[in-house]
Amino acid sequence: MANVFEEKATVEQWDADYYQPKGLKLYDWAVADMLRLMEVEPNATVLDAGCGPGVHSARVARAGHRVVAIDISSTMLSQARERVAKLQLTDRVTFFRKDLTKLDLADASFRYVFS
User: What are 56-95's pLDDT values in tens digits?
Assistant: First the structure.
């Protein structure tokens, strides 16, 4: 059975379903609210656990934070890297391929996490 998250068609379908202009405005507000409610300090590092195509990682980076973005899918990470590069945020976001159920991160590695 093919892994749906490794198929580029999945990213394309997500773009069509979720990342249209009207939805993007809502995500802008939601991510800003999330950062405010988490009380993320300026320039803090935020973990995006399961970053998918990187849409929200980019928002957090644009808000002035550093992001460590992880996902199990190499296809999703590739798309995320492309999005972040187009927005000239590569210095703010670091990507890693990791399985969220088998993380090798030390306890308390991140103060701020979203998924």
Answer: 999 999 999 999 999 999 999 999 999 999 999 999 999 9
- Integer Rg of the chain from CA: 14
- Structurally, the chain folds into a number of domains equal to 1
Residue 98 Rama label (left phi>0; alpha psi -120 to 50; beta): beta
Q: Look up the domain containing 15 and give its range.
A: 4-114
CA dist list (Å): 3 to 24, 43, 92, 100: 27, 35, 29, 16
Cβ 114 vs Cβ 57: under 8 Å: no
Domain with residue 35: its CATH number is 3.40.50.150
